Structure formats: structure tokens, C-alpha cells
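Q: I have 444 residues here and want to know how they pack in 3D. Can you give me a structure?
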Amino acid sequence: MRIAVVGAGITGLAAGYEAAKAGAEVVVYEAAERAGGRILTTELAGQPVDEGADAFLARVPWAVELCQELGLAGELVSPAQRAAFVYSRGELRALPQPNVLGVPLDFDALAASGIVSDGGVDRARQEPDLAGSPLVDDESVGSLVRRRLGDEVADRLVDPLVGGINASSIDDLSVGAAVPQLAEAAARGPSLVRELSRLAASSTADPEAPVFYSLPDGVGRLTDELVSRLGQRLRLSSPVTDLGELDADQVIVTLPADVASALVAPVSSAAADLLGEIDYASVVLVSLAFCAADVDHPMAGSGYLVPAVEGRTITACSWASSKWAHVGSHDTVVMRVSVGRYGDDRALSFDDDALLDVVRTDLAATMGLEAEPHTVRISRWERSLPQFRPGHLELVADIRQVLAQDAPWLQVTGAWARGLGVPACINQGRQAAQAGLTEGAIVR
């Protein structure tokens, strides 16, 4: 069985690893000089610090299982700090607990947080008794949350969490694709708060168990290990411009949707058109190292989110050296600041000096930090985060159905399909490899 994988991000590496493990003859093609895609760990102030994702979910199995297979389970670490904050109404305020993706489950805790006004709390308190009906069609996260809990909770809690993960606005994000937990709760009954509370109460998960994991050498340690396992099967600096040139029984394309669209067009124009409907957001991650003596703000937490309604440029600030015991030192504080969301590409238009000025202005406004960093790293990720619009899951199903008819030897998958987190991408890559092995009798 000959399988060709196009793209060596985490999805493609996982697909190649899975196929090779099953005994297939595998080649993974990557146009760039390195593998890993948007997972990248480089040195900052003398230590490895991620330029992209710095963690993955612990409570879904796919990344943890892969780490176990690769012998990395003993290296996994969880955040040293769990507390997180939101910059709202002029202050950093602790996220109210408990919450599910920003939806508050305790209205007294919401009131105590000060994140929303008294009027916003009163509006949210009405939610359990509001009439309503379960979700019928896929709607936006924003329309669901605004209808149930009001605009303030939507704008100051759910949008910075859910929108921040996707570099988008909750008013543009599909409930089913972006937050299936909310979709499940909404399908069970009219009250999101009641149903989310019931789901939480019925969960068998240990509430004290880690929510996130990482590796002391950065998430790039995971992709480096996959590269090592693939060995000569991985071909860097090897762009694929014509699927017809690949000597393989099955082909798995794991490229961004727009790039995949151009590659797929000669074999399925219909699938290419559908792939072209998926849009992307661009973001910039600014990593900063400070002398600890110059940072006088309390750092007891993992960092904070900045709602779009606050009108700042930054969307989040991770206190990396507080969040992770392996980052920073007694004399060095490391932060990672996120900039940019869908429809707001200002950060990409700034040169490095101008961008740093804007970031420092926002850090001063949100946490009173006036210190000058001694080390700065700017990572620009253009068109890096796929946007899951309402109807996205139906669009993905249509792409797969069309390809099954037009090119049954071809699969196209990646972060744009069913989730952009590290575990979801690993799962999609491995599933594609398993499907390719199952469909091995279908040749071009």
C-alpha cells in the first residue's frame, strides 16, 4: 500500500506516522524547509518558548495517546497556574467560576467578578427561566448566547474565550463546529445554564485533573519526535504542484483549505470550490522577556483576555513564566501577547517597531506595565486560523461526499475541517490514514 501525504504540519505528520505504523509505504511531502507547520518552538532569552500553540487539551484523548505511543508521556507537564483574568471595565478581573467557555454557571460569582455591569448580571439571571426551544439549525455562537444571556455576557465573557481561540467574533462562529459543548446543551433543553450545569454534574472527570498539557521543551518536541519516527519518509523542500505526479494508491492532503483548493481543482472542481469558501484569520504572537525586578504587577495566574469591545489592539496576554514552571526564571518574566482577529489585520500592516509600540501601550493600559523588555520575538502567522461559519460541518461533509465521487483515492483534511486544536488535528490525520488503508483497493 503506497500512501502519499501532502503537508507536514501536525495533521500530516500524524497521518504519515499512522500509515507507516500500519506497514504502508509512506512519503510525506513538505514544501517548507522544516516540518511542524504552525507548531514551532524556538529560543527566547535562553530557553525554548513556543511561537504558536503552547499547550493541548488534556481531557480529550488524541494528543495524550500519541504522546504515550511516542514515549513522551513521562515528560508531560500541566500549567502551574489556573487562574485567568479578563480586562473589562478598566480592570483585570478574575474569570467567574464555574463557567463553560465563558458561560457563567453561578450568577453570584458573575456579579462578584465585576466583568459585567449590574444590569448585565440581572439580564443573565433571567436565563434559566427564559422560554425557548432547542437548536434546530446551526446558528452562530453569538446569536445563541445573546438570546439566552444578553449582550454583556456575550461580549465580555464568551467572545474573548471562544472568539479568542478562533481569532474571530462569536457572531460569525458556528455553534456546532466551534463549541459542540454548547450545541449539546442547547439541544437538551432551552436553558444553557441549567443544561451545562447538569452536564458538568454528570461528568466523571476529576475536576482537579489537568486541563492542559505541554512539554518542557515546547510543543515542538512532539512534532520533532514524529519527524524522527518518519525519517527518510519525510521529504522537506518538496512542494507538490500536481497530484497526478504522485506515485501512490492513496493521497492525503493536509494543507490549508485555500492551498488545498488549488491543488484539488484539476481532479474535482466542485470540491475545490467548496474548499475555497473557508476563510482564515491572521494573527501575530509577540513574545517578550523582562527583568523580573522591572515587573511590579502581580503574576499569580496564567494571563488575561481582552474583549473586542474594549477597543484595544491585543486580544490576550499569557503570563508564560507564571503559567509554566519550565518557562522563565527567578530573574526573567516571559509573556506572550496575541494580536489580530478576523477582519482586523492592522497588526500585519505594522512593522516590528510600530507593532511593539502598540503592544507596550496596551500592556501599560491593561496591567500597568511600563517596563521595557530586554528580548522581543515577533511571530507573524498570516491566514493561520480557519473560520468556522454557521453551516461549516455541512460544508465539510459536502467536500468529503464530492471527493468520494470524483476522486475516491483522495482525502483532504486539516485544522479547517473539524477543529484547529492540536488533539483535533492529530485525530483527523490519523483517521485519514486509517481510512486510506481501508480504501486501499481503490486506486487511481
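Q: Anything worth noting?
A: The longest strand covers residues 280-291. The CA atoms of residues 302 and 323 lie 5 Å apart.
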